[in-house]
Each structure stands twice: as structure tokens, then as C-alpha cells.
Amino acid sequence: MSDDNPEPPRTDDVEGETDGFSTTLEETAIGDEEPSQGLFDDLLSGEPIFENKEVLRPSYTPHELPHRTDQINKMATILVAALRGETPSNILIYGKTGTGKTASAKFVSKELESTSQKYSVPCDVEYINCEVTDTQYRVLAQLANKFIEKNEARIDRRVDELEDRLADLEEYDGADDPSDPAERPADGTGGTAPTDDVSSGTGTDPQSSSSPVETEGSSDELEPDADSAHPLTSTPFSDREEVRARIDELEADRESFQEVPMTGWPTDRVYSVFFDAVDYDERVVVIMLDEIDKLVEKSGDDTLYNLSRMNSELENSRVSIIGISNDLKFTDFLDPRVKSSLGEEEIVFPPYDANQLRDILQHRSNVAFKADALSDDVIPLCAAFAAQEHGDARRALDLLRTAGELAERSQAETIVEKHVRQAQDKIELDRVVEVVRTLPTQSKLVLFAIILLEKNGVHSINTGEVFNIYKRLCEEIDADVLTQRRVTDLISELDMLGIVNAVVVSKGRYGRTKEISLSVPIDETEAVLLSDSRLSNIDDIQPFVQARFEN
Q1: Same domain? 479 vs 532
Q2: What are phi and psi of 348, to 5 degrees?
Q3: What pairs with residue 288 in β-bridges?
């Protein structure tokens, strides 16, 4: 090659370059370092135990719920009224945690919605978790926005159908013979004008008692009759101008919708938007309020009062409420009017026993794990542990899933009893860690005082000893010192949480006192407390422990 020709660019200079960045590992900083150490290769080398881990999570709704057939059938017999266009009775569902309340209600709701589509009966179910959405404003705003979204989707579908009908009209006009004016009517529709057939019940007047948006499934009424010569036959429209006017009306409705912000509006305005959004379309609405007692506890019964009284004002739609609660007595705090209208039907979910839990775990494990991944004693042991804690199926599923994860991490081929016992300890410790981590600072100081006393060999600790150490800790971090009576209350709260064990004992003529002991692992609990930035500098304190005579 002569020197006159420029040297072609080196391919390794430009290969893999995109907008100035190298896309090849060899030319990046990572490529200059040592090769991969195989950190994840080793973890991936073992055979996976799980086939579908999500089946063991609380959020999963199974296709079959063992030992809840009676409760599911009772819900179905109440809600079937929605498929007849009637208002179902309100339902209150009670039961302890992990007894299948939410899973059963979601299962029935899914069946209700699918059946409503099958029979072209408009029915919507909305689920609200009141532990998260716990104020009247948030509940109404979330519901309003969901129904606005549904209304917009239905309007879009309806507009598409009407525009297709206009296209059919254009095609029909083009198919006519223009040489014979006698064949073309004066109204310009291009064929024999249909009568104004409104027998389908989908009127065009938005103020009429029928729905402004044709109900779900009414699109069949717009399909041209196979024997009809005109696309508008058997529709409520007599000419294309009425179709265009209806499209304009629907699009104006869609533009008028305004999403509710999660804060900032007066509550009565939010309720008004929610009411209009629900009543825009003809349908039966089922509102499922999970952890309904949390909503009542946080914001009173105003929300339930408004929702339970809506039907007397609604014109197009009807509303039914399903309340789900762990508290059997929460209705005692409701206004009598709310209680009478809300608790029309009550369904109680009893705890599972060990045999029922075993059936549930077996049913889920068939889908969750690969074949022969479980030893024979795993499911009975998980069921036995969960049955000890009020028959909590959620706890049993967590235990089985955690045991599988521990077995997988150790690259074991089979889950055995050892993994279940390790999972039990891990779940218990995780619960303690979460509870201690979220305690208020004053409760953490009281708990830290108890830990320091136990570490210094004090047994059967009394309230006075805890209070003395507590005051010292408050001085160290410059915190307010509560009264001894208030510290006693905090000890009682720790006892209720299962973190300490406080027993009132009589000292004869010296009165009564609380003897306190720790109920959780001392080292792990102390580590959680020291992870708090305010308490992290007081771990070196050696409290003065007063000598005392033991009986």
C-alpha cells in the first residue's frame, strides 16, 4: 500500500463504541481487573429446589382453597345477586390472621368478575388494604381514581366501536349505485334509514336513567344484522350525525374527568368525585376493605357511613361492601346506624387445625417444589409449628418457604427436618428484630436497661432497678426522663409484645412488684438497639447494680 493512501481506521478502536462509551468488556475498566471469581457460579451450580416459589407467598391467590368451601359458598350465595343486577348484602368477614379470609374473598371476587363478563353483566370489584390506605381521604381518592380509569377505558372502547360504525357507513355509501338517485334517501345515510330503535336501553341522553356509557357487553347491539341492509339497523342511532354527536359527547365526558390528588382537596369534594365516577356507568360495584378495623381505628366510621348509605342516592350503579377484620369486636365501636347497615351478613373463619394446615401445605407444595424435594416429615412439622400459633396458614407457608430457601442456600438436594427448625428460629428472630427496630426511643432505653441488668447477672429484675438504669441512660444521650409510673407502662407494653416477661409478685408486707426477665435472645436484641444512632455510643456503660439480699 502506498503512503499516499490514508491508513484505514483500526477496527479495535471503534468496534463496540456507542456514543463515546465502550460496549466491550475488554476495553472497560472492569475488563482490566482480574477475571470473575465465580461468586455466583458456585451458588448457581446446585439444582434448584423450587419450581414456583410465589405459590408460597401470602399475595398468591390459589385456584382452590382447601377447608374453606363452606365460607366460599356462603359468600357466593350473597354476591350472586350482583349477576342479576341487584344489590348484594354487605358482608363482614371475621377471623384470626392466616385463616384464609383475604384469599377466599379474592377468590370469590375473581370468580364474580369472570362470570359477569361471561353473561355481559357489568360488575366491578375493588380491593383496598386499609392497613396502608387508612384514612377516609385516601380510601375515597384511591377508589375515585380507579373508577375514573375504568370509565375512561370503557369510553375509549365505545368510541372505537362508534368510529368503526362510521367506517361501515362510508363503505356502505360507496357500495350504492350513484346512477339511481331514487335509491339514495334524502337523509344522506346512503340507504334505507332505520327506525329509531332504542329498545336496547342505551339511550343517548346523558341525564336519562340509563347509563351514559353503554353497559359492558352492549357492543353486540351495534353489530349489523346479517339480514339488514344498513349498518345502523338495530342501534339507537338514525343517521351518522347522531353517531358523531355521541362520539363528541363521550369524548367530552372523558375530558371532564379529573384525577384526585392524594392530598390537598376537601374531603367532601373527593367524595363528590368518587360518587360521580361510580354512578357514571350502570354496574354493580363490590368494594372490599381488608383490615377494616384499622380504618375505623385511625379515622372513625365516617367512611363506612358514607359508603353504606350511597345506594339511596345512586341512580345508575349499586354498591356493596365486604369488610375483612381480625378483630371480632371492632363493630362495638361503630355508630349503631353504620353497624346495622354494614353487618347485614357475617362470616366467621375459624383457625385451621394441624391436619387442615397439612392439607394446605401439601396442596401448595405440589406446585411450589420440584419432585422429591421434601422429606416426609417436613410438612407435618411445619403444620405442627403453625398450629401452635392459632392455626395460622400464612405462618405455615412462610415456614415452608424459608426452609426451602435455607436448604437451597446450603445446596442440599432435599428439605429435611433440620431446615424447618432453622427456619422456625430465623422467622422468630426476624420478628423480634423488626419489632425492636421499630420501638420508640423511650421503649428502647427501657429495654436496654433490662439487657444491661441481665448482662450483669441480675435475675428477677424489679421495676425500681430498671428505672435507675433507665435514668442513667437518658442522661448519657440527653433524653427526657419519664416518671417511674410511665416506665412501668412501657415495661407492660414490652411484655405485650413478647419481648420481656413481666410477672407481678407479692412481697407480703412490702407490697407487690414486677419481676422482669428478657424473652428474646440477648445478643441479637442488643445489636438491634445499638444500630440506633442515638443509642450507639452507650454500649460501654457499666451500670451500678445495687447489692440485694435474696430470699
Answers
A1: yes
A2: -105, 130
A3: 127, 322
Shared domain check, 121 and 20: no
**Beta-ladder partners of 347:** 93
Statement to judge: residues 140 and 286 lie in one domain: yes
CB atoms within 10 A of CB 183: 12
Name which residue leads in pLDDT, 21 or 409: 409
Q: Is 352 annotated as a binding residue?
A: yes
Residue 327 maps to a domain:
yes
* Residue that finishes a domain, picked among 383, 400, 434: 434
CATH of the domain at 299: 3.40.50.300
| Listed residues 195, 222, 255: the one ending a domain | 255
What would the pLDDT profile of 136-166 be if each residue is shown by its tens digit? 999 999 999 999 999 999 999 999 999 988 8
Q: The domain spanning residue 417 has which CATH number? A: 1.10.8.60
pLDDT in tens, 435-477: 888 899 999 999 999 999 988 888 778 888 899 999 999 988 8
The pairing of strands 21-22 and 17-18 is: antiparallel
In a shared domain, residues 339 and 360: no
User: What CATH number is associated with residue 477?
Assistant: 1.10.10.10
Same domain as 170, residue 140 = no
pLDDT of residue 224 exceeding 70: no
Distance CA 441, CA 437 (A): 10
- Asked whether residue 31 is assigned to any structural domain, the reply reads yes
- 99 assigned binding-site residue: yes
Residues 275 and 215 in one domain: no
Is the separation of the CB atoms in 84 and 247 below 8 Å? Answer: no
Q: Is 101 exposed, middle or buried (0-12, 13-18, 19+ CB in 10 A)?
A: buried
Q: What is the tens place of the pLDDT at every residue in 358-410?
A: 999 999 999 999 888 899 999 999 999 888 877 889 889 999 999 999 998 88
Residue 393 annotated as part of some ligand binding site: no
103 assigned to a ligand binding site: yes
The reply to whether 163 falls in a domain is yes
Dihedral sign, CA of 68, 70, 71, 76? positive
464 shares its domain with 533: yes
Q: Compute the CA torsion angle 100, 438, 456, 522 (nearest 10 deg).
A: 40
pTM of the model: 0.68
364 assigned binding-site residue:
yes
User: Structural domain of residue 453, as residue ranges?
Assistant: 439-550
The C-alpha cell at 463 is: 421495676
On whether 510 is known to bind a ligand per the annotation, the reply is: no
Distance of alpha carbon 260 from alpha carbon 241, whole angstroms: 34
Quick count: other Cβ atoms within 10 Å of Cβ 410? 11
303 is in an annotated binding site: no
Q: What is the domain count for the chain? A: 5
Query: Which helix (H) or strand (E) element contains residue 126?
Result: strand 123-129
Q: Which has the closest alpha carbon to 229: 181, 200, 189, 182? A: 189
For 502-534, give the secondary structure using H, E and C.
Answer: EEEEECHHHCEEEEEEECCCHHHHHHHHHCCCC
Closest C-alpha among 384, 428, 378, 418 to residue 400: 378
Whether residue 482 is found in the same domain as residue 532? yes
Whether 113 and 366 have beta carbons less than 8 Å apart is answered as no
Has residue 359 been placed in a domain?
yes
